[in-house]
């Protein structure tokens, strides 16, 4: 009996002592938070020793959700100071281990999201995808709709990093529906920004800008100043890609004022954008200063993708200022980084830049190899990937058609059901008329009502048929536009490749392989199969246009008819130039000749006249 009492006393004493130790560790950790943030901001050498002490104390605290939240707090302190590194990930891994020990899937999925975000920001696409897939599994076990929406958003972001943009949009659309159902505005803003990135990489620039602007407005309305600024930074990136420098000069200073001193990575991107802006404005000394500042800011962050892009811009600026040697060195460094990262789109950019700068300094052999690699990577990126994207687009069109057909069938079924009800009502009225011979007036009125219902049913059936025909026209128009843009893109790529081959000086022009390739490119540019297929589809959609145009205006050539067809589709001069394989100036001259042949007044708009036929 005494022995048992002694053991109980020892156990209680030990438990009390352990509890006191855990509480003391927790209190110390709370006190460490501000000291740790100050240490990181001041870049004091004692930070590493302090972090080791913090991790030791975190391991003392019992492995539960409270300990996990403390670990996450310290990870966020490092993130806010701009450190997305292995030390930050150590805190997140510890938090996830503690949440896993708790056995609560909804807690586990939250720490899994943080690990996924860490992989996303450190540029490891495969690791991001693995962690996002695990996050979706945990979210489905948890069952909460907001976690499931977050998981699909991360899957979309991972697919963007892998370059599979159509797959990314599939996941992001699921996430968007989930956030919309939950009325989660901030979640919608995040998804819109990711969708904007995907659309930008698919060369759908207007859609990308629209989504980025929508995200920025959501953040502004929600009072998320920092996220609003980051959205503006993304928007400026898109504006710079299409040369809208006025818009960049409007929004970039606003974003810079917000992120300065608060978000080192965003500040580095702001300086990169200033460098690109000054380059486009021809202010080269300011461009170099901004880009060097971006590189210095990134030195403590370690974003290799940003570093490679900064070096590409520096190389381009030094080329414009005539410093070919520096341009060449930066081009070499950028290509080395992109090769290590394995990012296809970035590698195409750095190889092209390296080929041009190597040529300028007389490194013709290196320029030749770089051009050959550029052609191979460009073909891989814009060939295989574009084929996959076109196939995915066709599947999307087919899915939309199926959905429209299902909707139409449901409408027809509903209308038929209403028609059957109307027939049953009429039969009942006739039976009532037979049974109640004296109520002839009632039977007459009832018969009229039934006729009205039948007429309404016929009208509704006709409306459903009209809707179906409109949907079919809509889908064919989308397919026609997609094919026209595909022809333009193909011709643009072929022209670029032919031009690149013609500019290689180190290899004799009569070298068989290059001569055959150049001839093949000229032959490909002359093939009319794509145009003939496009013309057949256009005639299906507009069966009388070319006939009426020819009857009204005799003497129009085949080239005149082609130009009129593309103008009626509301395509721009650049797209028309690529489709017809002519220059922009040639398009302008062709438009002028067509206006004269159509006898249009100066005030008449050519496109409006063609649309009226």
Describe this structure in words.
- 85% of the residues lie in helices and 0% in strands.
- Among the domains are: 365-541; 542-613, Winged helix-like DNA-binding domain superfamily/Winged helix DNA-binding domain (Arc Repressor Mutant, subunit A, Orthogonal Bundle), CATH 1.10.10.10.
- By secondary structure, it is mainly alpha-helical.
- The protein starts with a helix and ends with a helix.
- The chain has 26 helices and no strands.
- Mean pLDDT is 77; it is low at 1-22 and 384-394.
Largest sheet: none
Helical proportion?
over 70%
Contiguous low-pLDDT stretches (5 residues minimum) are 1-22, 384-394
Order of helices and strands: HHHHHHHHHHHHHHHHHHHHHHHHHH
Would you tell me the structural class of the helices and strands?
mainly alpha
Radius of gyration: 33 Å
- Fraction in beta strands: under 5%
Short description:
With 613 residues, the protein is mainly alpha-helical. The chain is 85% helix and 0% strand. The chain has 26 helices and no strands.
Any chance you could write out the topology, listing elements then pairs?
Layout: H1 2-42, H2 47-60, H3 65-80, H4 86-102, H5 105-121, H6 125-142, H7 145-162, H8 165-182, H9 185-201, H10 205-221, H11 225-241, H12 245-259, H13 264-281, H14 284-298, H15 304-320, H16 324-341, H17 344-360, H18 364-435, H19 440-502, H20 512-526, H21 529-541, H22 545-552, H23 558-568, H24 573-580, H25 584-598, H26 606-611
């Amino acid at each position: 009996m005494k022995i048992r009492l002694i053991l109980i006393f020892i156990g209680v004493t030990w438990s009390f002592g352990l509890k006191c130790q855990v509480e003391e560790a927790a209190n110390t950790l709370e006190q460490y938070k501000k000291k740790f943030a100050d240490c990181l901001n001041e870049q004091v050498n004692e930070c590493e020793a302090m972090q080791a002490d913090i991790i030791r104390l975190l391991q003392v605290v019992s492995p539960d959700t409270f300990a996990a939240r403390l670990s996450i707090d310290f990870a966020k302190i490092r993130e806010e100071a701009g450190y997305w590194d292995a030390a930050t990930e150590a805190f997140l891994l510890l938090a996830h281990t503690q949440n896993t020990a708790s056995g609560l899937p909804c807690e586990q999925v939250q720490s899994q999201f943080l690990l996924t975000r860490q992989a996303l920001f450190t540029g490891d696409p495969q690791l991001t995808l693995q962690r996002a897939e695990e996050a979706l599994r945990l979210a489905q076990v948890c069952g909460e709709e907001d976690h499931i929406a977050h998981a699909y958003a991360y899957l979309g972001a991972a697919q963007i990093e892998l370059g599979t943009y159509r797959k990314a949009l599939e996941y992001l659309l699921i996430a968007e529906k989930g956030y919309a159902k939950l009325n989660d505005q901030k979640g919608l803003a995040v998804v819109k920004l990711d969708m904007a990135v995907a659309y930008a990489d698919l060369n759908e620039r207007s859609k990308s800008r629209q989504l980025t602007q929508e995200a920025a407005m959501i953040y502004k309305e929600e009072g998320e100043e920092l996220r609003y600024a980051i959205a503006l930074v993304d928007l400026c990136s898109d504006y710079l890609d299409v040369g809208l420098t006025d818009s960049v000069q409007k929004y970039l200073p606003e974003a810079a004022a917000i992120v300065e001193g608060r978000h080192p990575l965003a500040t580095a991107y702001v300086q990169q954008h200033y460098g690109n802006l000054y380059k486009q404005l021809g202010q080269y000394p300011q461009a170099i200063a901004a880009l060097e500042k971006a590189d210095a800011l990134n030195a403590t962050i370690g974003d290799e993708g940003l570093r490679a892009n900064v070096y590409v811009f520096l190389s381009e600026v030094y080329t414009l200022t005539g410093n070919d040697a520096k341009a060449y060195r930066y081009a070499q460094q950028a290509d080395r980084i992109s090769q290590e990262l394995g990012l296809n789109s970035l590698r195409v950019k750095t190889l092209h830049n390296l080929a041009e700068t190597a040529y300028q300094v007389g490194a013709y052999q290196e320029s030749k190899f770089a051009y050959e690699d550029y052609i191979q990577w460009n073909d891989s990126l814009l060939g295989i990937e574009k084929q996959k994207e076109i196939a995915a687009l066709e599947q999307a069109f087919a899915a939309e058609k199926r959905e429209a057909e299902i909707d139409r069938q449901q409408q027809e079924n509903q209308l038929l059901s209403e028609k059957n009800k109307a027939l049953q009502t009429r039969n009942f009225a006739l039976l009532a008329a037979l049974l109640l011979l004296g109520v002839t007036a009632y039977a007459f009125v009832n018969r009229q009502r039934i006729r009205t219902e039948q007429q309404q049913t016929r009208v509704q059936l006709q409306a459903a048929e009209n809707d179906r025909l409109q949907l079919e026209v809509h889908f064919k128009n989308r397919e026609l536009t997609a094919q026209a843009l595909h022809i333009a893109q193909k011709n643009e790529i072929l022209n670029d490749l032919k031009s690149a081959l013609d500019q290689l000086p180190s290899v004799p022009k009569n070298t068989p392989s290059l001569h055959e390739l150049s001839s093949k490119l000229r032959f490909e540019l002359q093939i009319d199969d794509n145009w003939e297929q496009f013309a057949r589809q256009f005639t299906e959609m507009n069966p009388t246009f070319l006939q009426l145009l020819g009857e009204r205006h005799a003497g129009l050539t085949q080239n005149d008819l082609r130009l009129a067809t593309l103008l009626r589709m509301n395509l721009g001069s650049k797209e028309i130039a690529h489709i017809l394989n002519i220059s922009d100036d040639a398009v302008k001259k062709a438009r002028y000749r067509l206006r004269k042949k159509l006898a249009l007044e100066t005030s008449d708009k050519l496109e409006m006249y063609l649309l009226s036929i």
